[in-house]
Amino acid sequence: MLSRIDHIGIACFDLDATAELYRRVHGFEVTHEEVNEEQGVREAMLRVNGTDDGQATYLQLLEPVREDSPVAAFLARRGEGVHHIAFGTSDVAAAAAEIGGAGVRVLDESPRAGSMGSSITFLHPKDCGGVLTELVQAAGAETPRQGGNTADPE
Ligand code: MC0
Q1: Which domains does the chain have, with CATH numbers?
Q2: Quick check: 153 pLDDT over 90?
Q3: Ligand 1 contact, 41 CB (< 6 A)
Q4: Which residue in 7, 69, 77, 132 could disulfide with 60, CB within 3.0 to 4.6 Å?
C-alpha cells in the first residue's frame, strides 16, 4: 500500500539559505515552490530523482509562515532538521483507513491539500517510533512501482 518514499520534510528557519546549502553541498536544485496556508508553511521541493510524474523523490524544505504552525512549534522545540518522512500511495484515504484501523492515530479526518496538488494525511509520531509520518497521493494517477514494498494484488 505504501510503495515508495515521496519526500523527506526538513524544517528550517530560512528557506532560501537552506535551499542554497542543498544546492551547494548536495547539488540539488529547487524544482518547485509554494505556500501552503492551511499548514502554515512556505516550502521548496528539491527533486532528487526522476521527473514530476508522481514517482519521484524529493527533499521538502519547510519554513513556517506563522508562529501557531506545527513547523514553528517543531523549530522552537527541536531546532532545524528532519521533520517528517512521507510515503507515496496510490490511495491515501484507503491507506489511512487501513493504518488507522491498526490503532495508529491518523491526524486528519480526511485528506488535505499537499505539495504540487497532492492529497496528504499525517500519522502521529508517537505511534510511528517517534517519526512524524505523512501519506501522499501524488496529483494524477499513481501506479505503485514494481519492486516497491507492496503486496502483489494478483
Ligand atoms: C512533534 N513531535 C514530533 C514532531 N512534532 N516528533 C517527531 N517529529 C515531529 N515532527 C513530538 C513532540 O516532541 C512531543 O513529544 C509530542 O510530539 C507532542 O508535540 P507538541 O509540540 O506538543 O505538538 P502537538 O502535539 O500539538 O502536535 C504534534 C503533531 C502536529 C505531530 C500532532 O505537529 C501535527 O498535527 N502535525 C501534522 C501536520 C504538520 O506537521 N504540518 C506541517 C508540514 P514529547 O515526547 O516531547 O512530549 S506540512 C507538509 O509537510 C506539506 C504541506 C506537504 O508535505 O505537502
Answers
A1: 2-137 (3.10.180.10)
A2: no
A3: yes
A4: 7
